[in-house]
Description:
Number of helices of chain B: 0
Number of strands of chain B: 11
Distance between the termini of chain A: 33 Å
Largest interface: A-B, 23 and 20 residues
Strand content of chain B: over 45%
Helix content of chain A: under 10%
Helix content of chain B: under 10%
Largest sheet of chain A: 7 strands, mixed
Order of helices and strands of chain A: EEEEEEEEEEE
Distance between the termini of chain B: 41 Å
Number of helices of chain A: 0
Number of strands of chain A: 11
Radius of gyration of chain B: 13 Å
Largest sheet of chain B: 6 strands, mixed
Oligomer: heterodimer
Shape of chain B: globular
Radius of gyration of chain A: 13 Å
Strand content of chain A: over 45%
Amino acid sequence: GAGVSQSPRYKVAKRGQDVALRCDPISGHVSLFWYQQALGQGPEFLTYFQNEAQLDKSGLPSDRFFAERPEGSVSTLKIQRTQQEDSAVYLCASSGEEVGYTFGSGTRLTVV
Amino acid sequence: GQNIDQPTEMTATEGAIVQINCTYQTSGFNGLFWYQQHAGEAPTFLSYNVLDGLEEKGRFSSFLSRSKGYSYLLLKELQMKDSASYLCAFHRDDKIIFGKGTRLHILP
Lengths: 112, 108
């Protein structure tokens, strides 16, 4: 596609509920990244894929967070048993040959 | 460890020049990014410096000193639409590590 597409745009979850956030990167982009951005803060790295391989998941805050990219294209970030501190904007970005990442508009998750 | 420091907020006047400074510490370094982020929107790429020196791109310029761990973003002829957060970030091991960002307010 023309840009990085994320869905849903907004998600309200009750505490304890599982959520799944989707990212559709730019077609042909090999690398895909997930970031978490709290209000008023910069994006914090969560995890990184090259094709279907998850090369770095050092930023995932707990074992409740899980990401996958089974066919090397669309990626899903899953958060189990959501807690209030998980409330943030989750940004997906992809990169190809060009310098820098292209970010999606993000999913704003609110846990109530 | 790794760390990025930049001012939390700055205010400048429309038509003026503003310089946003960034210092960083990291054990590995490929280059230095600046991104712009308007409220509620995705970050967008502004510049990438690999070598020391100044890179100019229209109204925006970015400077890097690798030996000092220092960069700045210079914005000239400020416009109201430049009101945004400016994120300093270093590139290391195929990933980008962001600072907390500098919120720039432009006054008419």
